[in-house]
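Translate structure to sequence.
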């Protein structure tokens, strides 16, 4: 029989999260308290702020304490945010593109410059599946 804490944690887990991995470029829509005069039709005292960057680490498994570290460069200065993915302050997480990686933690991107700081693209499986397959007949000629 589950304890009260386990049942509470199950109610707090989000089910609408995409499959996010290190190397993905993501947009994170986060609710922040707004100033008193700047409400525009949203819930009183709340607005949405978008943080777009590259996931360099995913930690603490799949539970309620799981976090991601998102990095972006603003005016030549690296900015990192550690975001708890099951937080109620997160409106949604949107994957912009996937990067091909061979490591779980991409901390080397902090010091990498230029071409070394880029990741190769990884195609979405949905995009590949939508393309029609064109098959042309192959002629086999006997060797003489």
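Result:
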């Amino acid at each position: 029989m589950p304890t009260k804490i386990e049942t509470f944690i199950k109610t707090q887990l989000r089910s609408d999260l995409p499959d996010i991995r290190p190397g993905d470029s993501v947009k994170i829509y986060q609710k922040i308290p707004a100033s008193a005069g700047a409400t525009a039709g949203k819930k009183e005292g709340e607005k949405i702020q978008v943080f777009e960057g590259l996931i360099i680490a995913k930690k603490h498994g799949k539970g309620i304490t799981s976090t991601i570290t998102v990095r972006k460069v603003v005016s030549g200065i690296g900015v990192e945010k550690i975001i708890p993915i099951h937080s109620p302050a997160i409106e949604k997480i949107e994957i912009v593109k996937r990067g091909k990686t061979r490591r779980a933690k991409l901390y080397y991107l902090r010091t990498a410059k230029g071409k070394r700081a880029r990741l190769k693209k990884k195609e979405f499986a949905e995009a590949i599946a939508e393309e029609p397959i064109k098959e042309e007949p192959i002629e086999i000629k006997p060797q003489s």
